[in-house]
Amino acid sequence: MTITVTGATGQLGRFVVAALKRQGADVVAAVRDTAKGESLGVPARLADYDRPETLVPAFEGTDRLLFVSGSEAGRRVEQHRAVVEAAVKAGVGHIVYTSITRADTSINPLAPEHRATEELIVASGLPYTFLRNNWYLENYTGNLGTALEHGVILGAAGDGRVAAATREDLAAGAAAVLTGDGHAGRIYETGGDVAFSMADLAATITAQSGTEVAYRDLPEDDYAQALIGFGLPEGFARVLAAADTSIARGSLDVATGDLSRLIGRPTTTLAEAVTAALKQRG
Ligand SMILES: NC(=O)c1ccc[n+]([C@@H]2O[C@H](COP(=O)([O-])OP(=O)(O)OC[C@H]3O[C@@H](n4cnc5c(N)ncnc54)[C@H](OP(=O)(O)O)[C@@H]3O)[C@@H](O)[C@H]2O)c1
């Protein structure tokens, strides 16, 4: 059985390829940069969502396709349509798509592109599984240096809770679906077992580092301005700030246990992720 992974050179895709290799699966990496793909240690084929002509050859012979959502918000419906059409043309047996928490109803500004993609996949008639991934824990632990330096974490998420999970756990969930049976037609709300608030995050960092870090909640527009001040492009800053407002309203407070059931163990906790991130800082 051949499993093809798109976005295989990305941070999530690399973990999926590694997990599949450990399980002895027959893996093909579908990548937009074949030179980068060589480092994966599996056959790499060119597959650029912006170049539909590359996609059918990349997917040929694929029994199961992990379709990792693209990273260019605003351009993804067109790109994803090309991927789904190519999967149909290539005769892919089953498509597994990395979506977003509650894609069908979410007020998260990033959800509509995922909702549209899920609809395209359903309409394609291909057997499918949706992995509605919650936020990555790394979104919160990847930048601990700044929090420790300033003693503050900024956001607009209020008391909203996030059932974030590490990329590695989410990748293990994807690998379990890709190599397992009985997942066709299933929608998994994949995330951490325990949702946490930004105050919980600040308290965990404080407890583990010994440095006082507080969460400061800002109005959405002020948070967007702060992100722009940190150098983010305005459009992206505004989407992130609006996403935080959606978190305040519960958009990511969805802890279902789906991921831990898929991987057969509890998901990595906030405390464990903070420990690992602090260790990495040395
Ligand atoms: N849950 C979350 O918190 C969260 C956060 C951010 C993003 N996401 C979503 O989850 C996806 C995977 O996350 P990640 O951490 O692995 O992101 P990432 O490290 O940015 O990787 C994105 C992958 O998509 C590939 N890609 C982008 N545009 C493409 C195109 N036009 N054609 C083919 N491949 C393309 C990239 O290729 P290259 O390696 O060549 O760049 C990369 O391999 C993201 O793309 C995004 O949709 C989720």
UniProtKB/TrEMBL annotation:
A Pfam short name: NmrA
Query: Which residue spans adopt a coiled-coil conformation according to this UniProt entry?
Result: none
From which domain of life does this come? Bacteria
The NmrA-like domain, residue ranges: 2-242
Q: What PANTHER family does the annotation carry?
A: NMRA-LIKE DOMAIN-CONTAINING PROTEIN (PTHR47129:SF1), QUINONE OXIDOREDUCTASE 2 (PTHR47129)
Q: What is this protein called?
A: SDR family oxidoreductase
Tell me which species this is from.
Answer: Dactylosporangium aurantiacum
Q: What is the lineage of its organism?
A: Bacteria, Bacillati, Actinomycetota, Actinomycetes, Micromonosporales
